Automatic annotation (TrEMBL):
Protein name: FAS1 domain-containing protein
Keywords noted in UniProt: Signal
One Pfam family hit: Fasciclin
FAS1 domain segment(s): 49-201
Gene3D superfamilies named in the record: FAS1 domain
Length: 204
C-alpha cells in the first residue's frame, strides 16, 4: 500500500522533470529574426554591359595581347568600373608578324651578357609591362577632330590618330595611327573601348 502511495506521489514529479529537460523547438514563424538560420537576401552585382576584361576574353583575335596583359598588374584595370580606358589591341596576326615578341624587348647594340634565370624573368616582365602599357590610353579617345594625340600608360609614349578615309565607314575606321596602323574593329564595354589594330604601338 505504501508503495502505491509513493508511486502516486513520485510520478507527477518525474514527468515534470522530464518535460523540463526536453528542448523546446519553435515553429519557423515564431523564430526571432536574430535567431533565424536563413541566409539574408543577396542581390548579385550585375552590369548591363561587359567589362574590357569580358570583351578580351571572348575576342579570339586578341588572345595573345590579353595573355601578355594578364601577366601584369595592368589587367586588373580591365575590370575596374571606376575608370575609362581605351585599349589599342594588336590582333594575333599583327603580333605574330613582329620579328621580336613582346617579352624579348628590342635588340640591344651593347654586348650581351649571360643572365641568370631570375634576371631573365625579371627583364622579360619589364619588357611585357612596357609593351602592354604602350597600348593603353587611360581616358576616352575622341576621333571627331583629327589629328589628335593621346598619352598612353607608358611614360613618355603617346599615340597620334590621323584622318585616313572619308565616306560612310564608321568613325574609327576612317583613321590610322601615325605609323599607318589601321583600326580593324571596335568593341565597347562599360569601362572603356577596345580598338583592334593591324599593327602594334612601338614601345621604344
Amino acid at each position: 500500500m505504501r508503495v502505491l502511495h509513493f508511486a502516486a506521489f513520485a510520478l507527477p514529479l518525474l514527468v515534470s522533470a522530464s518535460l523540463n529537460e526536453q528542448s523546446v523547438f519553435l515553429p519557423p514563424s515564431t523564430i526571432p529574426p536574430e535567431q533565424s538560420m536563413t541566409t539574408p537576401d543577396y542581390t548579385p552585382l550585375t552590369h548591363t554591359r561587359p567589362t574590357l576584361a569580358d570583351l578580351l576574353t571572348i575576342e579570339p583575335s586578341a588572345s595573345i595581347y590579353y595573355s601578355y596583359a594578364r601577366d601584369t598588374e595592368l589587367s586588373k584595370e580591365f575590370n575596374a568600373a571606376d575608370q575609362y580606358l581605351t585599349l589599342l589591341v594588336p590582333t594575333n596576326k599583327a603580333v605574330m608578324a613582329q620579328p621580336r615578341k613582346p617579352h624579348q624587348g628590342r635588340v640591344s647594340s651593347e654586348p650581351q651578357i649571360e643572365l641568370s634565370e631570375q634576371q631573365f624573368d625579371e627583364q622579360s616582365q619589364r619588357n611585357i609591362y612596357r609593351w602592354v602599357s604602350a597600348h593603353i590610353i587611360p581616358t576616352h579617345v575622341s576621333l571627331s577632330n583629327l589629328p589628335v594625340t593621346y598619352d598612353t600608360m607608358l611614360q613618355g609614349k603617346s599615340v597620334t590618330f590621323i584622318p585616313s578615309l572619308d565616306g560612310d565607314a564608321p568613325e574609327w575606321a576612317r583613321v590610322t595611327l601615325e605609323d599607318g596602323t589601321r583600326i580593324v574593329g571596335m568593341k565597347k564595354g562599360m569601362n572603356g573601348v577596345v580598338y583592334l589594330i593591324d599593327g602594334i604601338v612601338n614601345p621604344y
